[in-house]
Design a protein that fits this description.
- The chain has 611 residues and is of the alpha/beta class.
- The protein folds into four domains: 197 residues, D-Maltodextrin-Binding Protein, domain 2; 88 residues, D-Maltodextrin-Binding Protein, domain 2; 138 residues, OmpA-like domain (60s Ribosomal Protein L30, Chain: A, 2-Layer Sandwich), CATH 3.30.1330; 63 residues.
- The chain has 23 helices and 21 strands.
- The strands form six sheets. Strands 3, 4, 10, 11 and 12 form a five-stranded mixed beta sheet that branches.
- Strand 16 and strand 17 form a beta hairpin.
- Helix 12 packs across helix 17 and helix 20 runs antiparallel to helix 22.
């Protein structure tokens, strides 16, 4: 039900005022002296309020390593400490109180200017815990897709917690629509949730057009993921989810990192930590999934959720069955295959390299850091990690076959579209080369990767001119259409039993309905057959574009889940210009449109596509 960084909400970035631009992270931490990591048997490891950290509790047996626990069996002695105050986490990390950092990849990026100043504290990212499925951008009624975030005149105003996990979500949402923070007005708030959070800002200030929120706040504003606020029971009239990590499922990556100097001196200890977490992951996942299926809570699962409730607090997790269990439901564990895909798979557009590039782009472009200081991957041998954890090693696939996601109908495409873009082509064109369309193909592949819980609908379109000409000619010949006026300014009237009524050729839906009814059939040129041929041609072009994208992905070594790429033919049903007056206007209708479309998460299986 909820992704909650609740304690982060009350302590992180409290000094930042609403509507100020991003502030350099070094100003938040102040001067920090780098010291060696404190020696001693017990190691301090921070945790944050998120479902992925419940697995850490499970592996450790609680806040301190319990005898018989997974980590105890690895010979580790860990003390798990609160880490929701990320600024304090960074201070402790730099001063040697803990060699670990726990946050999202983008949070590491925002702190990169501080973390990379000394080679001893350069982060080595050792573990990806999960992807988020419980963060959302909620918008008012006028915003339907991410394309709507750019408008003429007054900028869209978006409330977002300064420096928190949603900064990365917002960055990805803007990037998907080819926008930047300069195209919108970001209104930064102090807290993730609560009275100083983005949801309350959205609720109290009608000039705020959208807000970045966690699931409980999303439900409070909209009534649910697929609902629209009615104004009743605390919801906001017209509020709805613009985009969610249910669909943008590879936006927020939760990770652990350690200091470079400590990693070099304690590599085996780090491997034990990673192996223990990965060993615990399928056990926790099974406990969660068994309860979700049967609604019967095992004693072991109840104990784990009770431990989590005690650690996070009953104000954060009031109930076990809804809140604590829901915290885990929003967590998409990546497991061992996900480590291989994230750290080692070169073609993974949501892997370590691309995510670090994006994190540093955000940090420098939005003002959190004054230079690009990156991180290092662990360089683990995951066959060795698998053996230590007692897990089978499976190499993730690059090109994943799939059965598709069912039919996408025109009457629900608009309501399910998250963002869209198009390419144009010439009449009778059948070749879609990388030389001409490479940038669009790359954008489609990146969208498929970031929006792992969505479909990329490749929608072919045809120009309606020939079909309209044949329909008018047939109608005039049969006497069911009457024409008045002069060339270039004709008016058409449809004769029917109820009398003549004017026929508007620009109303494509009405013209398609009349043609489908067979009203114009009988002439030598059948508009119905021409319309069907246009539909077949549009689907064929969509299929050709898909195959060109797949070929491009294979040549570039880019990972892609083929079940996400769904070619659809729209025919003449949705033209840009309904009644073209020249060839230039007709060409605007000859296009292939890419739409990122919401699907039921259960329709997408990531069993073999763990990144």
């Amino acid at each position: 039900m909820n992704r909650i960084y609740a304690l982060l909400a009350t302590t992180l970035f409290m000094s930042l005022a609403t509507q100020l631009p991003a502030e350099q992270f070094s100003k938040l931490t102040g001067p920090v002296n780098v010291r060696p990591v404190q020696s001693g048997k017990q190691i301090n490891v921070p945790y944050i309020t998120w479902g992925g950290d419940v697995t850490t509790f499970f592996a450790n047996g609680g806040l301190e390593t319990e005898p018989g626990s997974i980590y105890a069996q690895e010979g580790l002695d860990l003390k798990l400490t609160p880490g929701d105050d990320f600024v304090q986490q960074v201070k402790d990390y730099m001063s040697g109180k803990s060699p670990f950092l726990r946050g999202t990849f983008r949070m590491l990026g925002q702190a990169s200017g501080v973390l990379g100043q000394d080679p001893r504290t350069k982060p080595v990212v050792i573990l990806q815990l999960s992807w988020s499925g419980g963060d959302h951008i909620v918008a008012r009624k006028g915003l339907r897709t991410l394309n709507d975030l750019k408008r003429d005149g007054k900028k869209v105003r978006i409330a977002c917690q300064q420096g928190g996990p949603h900064v990365g979500l917002l960055y990805d949402a803007l990037a998907a629509a080819k926008l930047s923070n300069q195209d919108v007005e970001i209104v930064f708030v102090d807290d993730l949730t609560g009275p100083n959070g983005a949801a309350e800002k959205f609720r109290s200030d009608k000039s705020i057009d959208a807000c970045c929120v966690i699931t409980p706040d999303m439900i409070g504003l909209t009534g649910g993921l697929d609902s629209e606020g009615s104004g009743a029971e605390g919801t906001v009239q017209g509020a709805h989810v613009l985009v969610s990590t249910q669909n943008m499922s590879r936006s927020i990556a939760d990770v652990y990192a350690v200091r470079s100097d400590w990693y070099k001196a304690n590599r085996e200890t780090v491997e034990k930590f990673v192996a223990g977490y990965l060993k615990a992951t399928p056990e926790v996942t099974k406990l969660r999934d068994d309860f979700e299926k049967t609604q019967r809570m095992s004693r072991e699962y109840r104990q784990l959720l009770t431990t989590s409730q005690q650690i996070f607090g009953e104000d954060v997790l009031p109930t076990l069955e809804v809140d604590a269990h829901g915290l885990l439901l929003d967590c998409r564990f990546v497991g061992l295959p996900g480590q291989v895909a994230f750290f080692n798979q070169q073609g993974n557009l949501s892997g370590f390299g691309p995510k670090m590039t994006a994190a540093l782009d955000l940090a420098t472009n939005w003002g959190y850091a004054d230079g690009r200081r990156g991180f290092d991957p662990s360089g683990f041998d995951y066959r060795k990690i698998a053996s230590r954890a007692g897990l089978p090693y499976v190499e993730p696939k690059t090109i994943v076959e799939g059965e598709g996601l069912g039919e996408f109908l025109d009457d629900d495409l608009d309501t399910r579209t998250i963002v869209s873009f198009t390419i144009s082509f010439e009449p009778n064109q059948t070749d879609f080369s990388v030389d001409r369309y490479g940038a669009e193909f790359d954008r489609a592949l990146q969208s498929a990767s970031t929006f792992g819980g969505a479909a990329v609908v490749i929608r072919g379109h045809s120009d309606p001119t020939k079909t309209l000409v044949q329909a008018i000619k047939a109608g005039l010949g049969k006497g069911i259409i009457r024409r008045t006026g002069q060339q270039g300014n004709y008016r058409y009237f449809l004769n029917s039993q109820g009398g003549a009524r004017e026929l508007d050729l620009s109303q494509t839906g009405e013209m398609v309905r009349l043609i489908k009814s067979g009203a114009f059939e009988g002439a030598s040129d059948s508009p119905l057959q021409t319309m069907q041929a246009a539909l077949n041609l549009s689907l064929a072009r969509a299929e050709q574009v898909k195959q060109a994208i797949v070929k491009h992905a294979e040549q570039e070594g880019v990972s892609v889940n083929l079940s996400q790429l769904q070619p659809v033919g729209a025919g003449i049903s949705d033209p840009v210009i309904s009644k073209p007056s020249n060839m230039a206007e007709a060409r605007q209708n000859m296009r292939v449109e890419f739409r990122i479309v919401k699907v039921n998460p259960e329709e997408l299986s990531e069993t073999d596509f763990d990144f």
